[in-house]
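Observation: inputs received (chain + biotin).
Thought: call the complex predictor directly.
Action: predict_structure
Action Input:
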Amino acid sequence: MPAGHAEGMETEVRRRLEARGREWPAPIQWLPTVGSTNDFLKDRAREGAPGWSAVVAERQTGGRGRRGRPWLSPPSNLFLSLLLRPELPAGSAGLLPLAAGVAAADAAREWGVEARLKWPNDVLVRDRKLGGVLVEATTAAEGLDAVVVGVGVNLSLDPAAAPPALRGTITSVRAENGLAPGPAVAAAAVLDRLAVWYDALARDGPPAVLAAWRARSVPWWGRAVEARSGDAVLRGIARDLDGRGALILDLADGSRRVVLSGEVRELRLET
Ligand code: BTN
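Observation:
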């Protein structure tokens, strides 16, 4: 890799942000390779890095997904982490994972892909995964100290070349519409939209983000789903999100349950 490549890419991300009307207020670091951008940025957070510091990697050797799953991280895709030091009331800070999903879906739509969100923040095209969000928080004595928002989007990945276990479950921007932005363009778009939705949370609280999330969600309301949260498995009808972004389910016994974290899948009737 030529000397100065990383600096050039950092400048490119900043230039793209400026073209979108946004002067980025903190360091943006470009790494040819890293274990996980989230882990890297959590280390920087412990060393005192300022809020809005961002890291973009060309590839990850230990990319992590939610629930401890590995995240496929070959070059030409987006691996981005953003450090927030949120000055938000607790009720709004809890919405950051949903806000990040909205931001990723917005960016995908800029690239011509009709991305939808599956609770809490899987970015899907039809039933295939285009991207995902991993939000990790650290707390200090005074409360929330740092939040690292990790976003991965498959840009140029060839789904047919993915490991067998993932085939048929993932897609990419290029697979959907034949072309894809490079990681620097994609990073600027996602950072810009993350700032938009953070500002919306800070200004208006949860309602705007909840409405944006619902508007981009898979059309599962009123349908049977299975939610897994820790060891619990709940089957019911998906009704809505509550004011904290938790999933509201109506169970077959007539009770209503609220799922704060976990995974959900649609239950399709066998025909
Ligand atoms: C998911 O399981 O859907 C979340 C995937 C999050 C992947 C991104 S890639 C950038 C950041 N670094 C990581 O190790 N993970 C997140």
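Thought: report the result.
Final Answer: The CA atoms of residues 101 and 144 lie 20 Å apart. The longest strand covers residues 128-140.
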